[in-house]
């Protein structure tokens, strides 16, 4: 009986070793492909990470409205060393003296969302380290009596060199995006106004992601 138990444990150990070895090889292959600029692989890495963030439980130190904006992120463009995303921001309201009041406008929320996404894209993508990332923040906007539109109110980009100058733990979101020379406009009463941003390159339309054999969901840091 003892002999059979030893045999079973040995076989189990061999299987685990094989699985770990294959996983390590796959991770190395993904990292090398991304470093070489393989856009299909880069797209799969980024979209897998975004999918994981959408299902991830909100970290305690991140406000619910900011995390909701983070989970709205969409990949809009990429290149060998570049990732561009968009996200949604809305006003935050609180019940004060029996009335709902705006305590943070979409731009203030957008700054917090953008700062968080910049950090995640630069440091939390598995198997890939883009040299530059860009975040465009959109919100609902109504022109006079016209229809409500989804417009960009903030755009900010950062290179790895820029990111090294930022104190991600101590600075406020506004300090971070201003240090990175974010672009936005304010109206007469401090309200955010629409801004123009260049359209995506269209490269995503040319890339059809393929799931290679042995592909594993990228949910951990590489």
Unreliable segments (pLDDT under 50, ≥5 consecutive)?
Answer: 212-222
Distance between the termini: 43 Å
What is the helix tally? 7
Order of helices and strands: HHHEEEEHEEHHEEH
Question: Notable features of this structure?
Answer:
222 residues, four-stranded mixed beta sheet, 41% helix, alpha+beta, 23% strand, two-stranded antiparallel ribbon
What's the topology here?
Elements: H1 2-35, H2 39-55, H3 64-70, E1 74-79, E2 82-88, E3 92-96, E4 99-104, H4 106-123, E5 132-142, E6 148-159, H5 160-164, H6 173-179, E7 185-186, E8 192-193, H7 203-206
Parallel strand pairs: 2-5
Antiparallel strand pairs: 1-2, 3-4, 5-6, 7-8
Helix pairs in contact: 3-4, 4-6
Question: How would you describe the overall organization of this protein?
Answer:
The chain has 222 residues and is α+β, with helices and mostly antiparallel strands. The chain has 2 domains: 1-36; 38-206, no CATH class. It is built from 7 helices and 8 strands; from the N terminus they run αααββββαββααββα. It has a 4-stranded mixed sheet with strand order 1-2-5-6. It has a two-stranded antiparallel sheet with strand order 3-4. A two-stranded antiparallel ribbon has the order 7-8. α4 crosses α6. The two termini are 43 Å apart. Residues 212-222 have low confidence and may be disordered.
């Amino acid at each position: 009986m003892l002999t059979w138990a030893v045999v079973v444990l040995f076989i189990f150990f061999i299987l685990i070793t094989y699985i770990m070895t294959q996983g390590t090889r796959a991770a190395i292959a993904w990292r090398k492909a991304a470093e070489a600029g393989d856009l299909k692989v880069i797209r799969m890495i980024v979209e897998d990470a975004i999918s994981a963030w959408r299902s991830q439980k909100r970290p305690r130190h991140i406000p619910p409205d900011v995390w909701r904006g983070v989970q709205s992120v969409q990949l809009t463009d990429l290149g060998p060393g570049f990732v561009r995303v968009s996200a949604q921001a809305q006003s935050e309201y609180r019940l004060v003296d029996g009335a709902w009041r705006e305590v943070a406008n979409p731009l203030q929320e957008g700054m917090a969302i953008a700062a968080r996404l910049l950090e995640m894209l630069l440091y939390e993508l598995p198997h890939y380290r883009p040299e530059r990332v860009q975040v465009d923040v959109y919100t609902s906007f109504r022109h006079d009596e016209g229809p409500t539109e989804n417009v960009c109110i903030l755009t900010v980009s950062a290179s790895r060199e820029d990111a090294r100058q930022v104190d991600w733990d101590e600075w406020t979101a506004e300090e971070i995006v201003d240090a990175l020379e974010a672009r936005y406009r304010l109206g007469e009463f401090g309200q955010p106004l629409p801004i123009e941003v260049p359209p995506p390159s269209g490269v995503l339309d040319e890339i059809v992601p393929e799931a290679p054999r042995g592909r594993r969901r990228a949910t951990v840091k590489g």
